[in-house]
Amino acid sequence: MNSIEEQHRAPVSQALLSAFISSCAGSYSGSALNNYIAGLRAWHLLHGIPWNIESNKLRSILEGASRLAPPSSKKPKQLPCEKDTLLRLLTYLNLEDARDAAIYACITVTFYSVSRLGEFTVPSLNKFALDPSRYIMRSNFTVQQDIAGLPILAFRIPVTKCSSEGEDTHSAPLEHLTDPATWLNNHLRINNPAPTDHLFSWKHPKGIRPLTKPEVTKRIHEIVTQYDLPNIKGHSLRIGGTLHYLLLGTPFDVVKTMGRWSGDSFTR
Q1: Parallel/antiparallel/unpaired status of strands 207-209 and 167-171
Q2: Would you tell me how many other CB atoms lie within 10 Å of the CB of residue 130?
Q3: DSSP per-residue codes, 185-228
Q4: Which of 86, 108, 162, 171 yields a CA-CA distance of 20 to 30 A from 57?
Q5: Which residue, among 117, 151, 156, has the nearest Cα to 140 in the 3D structure?
Q6: pTM of the model as a whole
Q7: Neighbouring-strand partners of residue 169
């Protein structure tokens, strides 16, 4: 940047921006480069400076740079959690313990509703305290009926990764030991969160507290390490839930709707 004359910095030219992206190729991930360009475009718009960049050319060079991203910039792919793993976890958790009851209810609901673990947990106690309304409360859970009159577990997630206005997700009771309805009811019996409490709040020795994502991953890591189980990451539940329904013969478009995907990224 220091070697570029002031008059050439803004508005940025197509040639200069292309040269910048090319110089970064092989050192940064595609998402990092996209973020850099988005920030640069926002700066132009904020200051009323024309953005004279052809979108098609920009897209092409960003795609090319993304293909050259170093392996270190990419997260390793997470394996899907299988229903059998959920069943084995049931063996090693104490489902009369307040924390374990909340955790198992949370992961079964996440798995069978094809959701993100972060949608049913909070990132930290401090972030929850700043704005509890961003996270699912007990009042956001209801039992509804489908067109056949069968019960459906319905959840309203106030804010999601893809929608600041929130989204709905559902899960059906199952005749299986990992039935989400059974373990959600078990959690509610033991921890009994108030309507305005986080749905998976649990009775900590210092009082009722929301279930954090680190609390879940830490407890699962303890078990999989001790008993040599397949490792479960946060996204493993969503991947596993997707695979579970596809293997049952559920049509792709139905699974896509269940997982609230707007595109076809889940097929990759």
Answers
A1: unpaired
A2: 8
A3: HHHHHHH---TTSBTT-EEETTEEEPPBHHHHHHHHHHHHHHHT
A4: 162
A5: 156
A6: 0.74
A7: 155
